Amino acid sequence: MIVLLSTTTSAIYSGAEFEINNNLKTATFISQKFEVGPGKVAVKTFLDIEFPKGHIGVKSFDSEIVDEEGNSVPLHEAYLHHWFAIKYQSKVWNNTSPIPHDPMEDAIYIRNQGTCNSYILPAYWGLGGESRGTISKLPNPYAVELGDPKNVPIGFQEKWLLNLMVIDTRGAIDKKSCSECRCNNFINLPKNFYNDTFGIDGKPLSPNYKGGLFCCKDELQCKLKKGFEAPRRKLAIRYKITWVDWDQHQIPVRFYILDATDRVKKIGSLVIHDCQAEYTIPPSNHDIKHSPHHIQKANIPVEKGGYLIYGTAHMHTGAVNGSIYGQDGRVLCTSNPTYGKGEEPGNEKGYVVGMSTCYPEPGSIKIKDGEIVTMESRYKSGYRTGVMGHMYIYLADRLPENIYRPTQV
């Protein structure tokens, strides 16, 4: 999301579970542990995480929160606000040059091909509370090509970092406000918070900012029920990656994150993107049950198009759906939430526990170069802060040789 390197730590290697099924390889890794307590926020960035090596094609990347024993942790105890895997190239330090104190000195961040500006939404993979129930697998023969030596400068090596935000809502007076990062729900915001905190535009945060990422800083404390006590505990991200060795049979895809808050401007032929990453839904003046949905949308030009291979949305509780439309109004993809109905991990009542995915018939949907697509984020009415409406899509330049190519796309 916004990489908060002030809480950066290098990864501790865990010794992955590894298996091979025909040409498909799978490994499960455990991130470095981090500690939380009732009502506490944890915002962490782990550098140089374990990741498959070599020239490969990644087919899927899935993750969840686990405790020290490797047990899945439910969202109503530890809300996974987001996790993001971000690629970077790190300088190789040798005996002739001293290793710097900052491990990211001279590092080069490699963002996805999405349209957002600079450091906003740069990840290659990432979701939130819906992670367990959202399919990430790419259909054959498509894959995310990584580790090609031709794309790594001499003296550098390709690495990955993991950025995450987890909110321990055990004992919270208002779990919804806590998980939405409502500023007035935290008891230890700095005294000069609004003057000393800079927003996504690089300016001091407005007093009108009532909740979201900037009010969920590491170690901030949500209000707890009187007398509630529970021990601090250590958690981790368990992530599973499947991949193949890269060869001529694979077709590379490009990954895009489209943001419903992108305030696109055009100056002559220059397109300027201004993604906000999150937004607030104002209180409704009507009966919530009969109020129309709140719709946030952006018209986003896609400089380099391609065949749509996969799509899904990242959204929070209250989501109705996320959709993208072509310039002519055709539906490219609609992603719908699944809400939990129980207590167990993956089925937590009231939480978004999965988002549906789009797998168009090969060649049936193509975004043209320069086409303006509309990203639409639709939520139930009612006051919400830190709302997100992101669409994740994979585009390919070509189809397999044996696929029929329709003349109308």
From TrEMBL:
<dbReference type="InterPro" id="IPR011692">
    <property type="entry name" value="Stress_up-reg_Nod19"/>
</dbReference>
<dbReference type="Pfam" id="PF07712">
    <property type="entry name" value="SURNod19"/>
</dbReference>
<protein>
    <submittedName>
        <fullName>Uncharacterized protein LOC113783947</fullName>
    </submittedName>
</protein>
